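Incident log, structure service

09:12 report received: a user says their structure output differs between two submissions of the same chain.
09:20 pulled the input from the user's history:
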Amino acid sequence: MTRSAGPSLFAGITSFLASATRGRFRLIIGYEDPRCDELARDGAAIIEAANGHALLMPRALPAPLTAFAVRMVMADGAVYVRASGEALIYLGGRAVERTREGAPASETELALIDQAVAGLGEDPALPRAEGGWEFVGEGMIGAYVDRAVSRLSDLGSRSPVPVRVDEASGLLATLLERLGVPIDEAGAGLALSVSTDGRTLASSLPEDAVRQCLAHALTTNPAAPSGPGQYCVDPAFVLDADAITAGAALALMTAR
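09:34 re-ran on a clean worker, output below:
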């Protein structure tokens, strides 16, 4: 699911999507750290030069928002550049069947992308456009929050415990406030920590207790990744692990 982010990877994905869609495709580029902005723009220039259409996320945001945006704008795929230099690859639109839109690329699909990368020349030889790409609007962030609130409100709660939050983007705190969950850094009964890329959740509860609590909210879609700290509670729009919505769901469900 991960590859080293760089010009050759963008060109390889361009070749793969051009073949998969048999036309001009749409690719979203998201990134975890503001310092990845230059690489994201370089990727957009490579995509546009190859007759694809690039849409850059508005700023550094957690990966689940990129996965969410794939389905919302009916893109054919996305690349998410992590702060480590790795890239997460998602597919959607005409590149995969509908049940896998916004899901991480499979090993079979990644192998095809690797083949395309292997057949390319050196990075400096790759053509680049001087413009043509667009930006995904800030409204996508609000749409993500609205969707999560709508989904999580159905879970219900009695009296949520106060929560301590460690999540860089501020989206988890926004969700908790919208859902009526108190944030109390001093005397919190539940501590939630989300990785910078938004995919992994750590809490003051043991892993087995978290999974038991979220059992009815978790998706069983095989396209959604799972593992220690990884949860997906909204299969309709986010097919990557989503620690932000999972953390909000956990806060709602650990009621007194």
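09:41 both user submissions now match this output. Likely a transient worker issue. Closing.
09:42 reviewer note: The two ends are 39 Å apart (CA to CA). DSSP finds eight helices and ten strands in the chain.
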